[in-house]
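Researcher: Here's the sequence for the chain we discussed earlier.
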Amino acid sequence: MPSIPDLVKEARRAPNGYVEFLRVPSMSAGVYVLSAGAEDRQSPHLEDEVYYVVRGRGKFQRGREEMSALPGDVLFVPARALHRFHSIEEELVLLVVFSPAEQPTD
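Model: Thanks. This is the structure I predict for it:
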């Protein structure tokens, strides 16, 4: 299994800032990187989702709720819920877990 630092390097090169490193029917996992000042353009997912903030600093909005996104925070998003990161002050590195495995929304 690759290390978080290696996955971060790969995610920085990815067009959407995300790289998946695990996929089984019951879940998928990846690393999502958003640079300082970036705009989070994701749309709601069909799966439940958990974010673990590895490092960085910003805000997170889930529906009408707004909260900090700081190292060590765990953020849950139910399937189909509107959510996004914003006001990113320091590059956010996020461990992301989908359950069941993420399916394309297009």
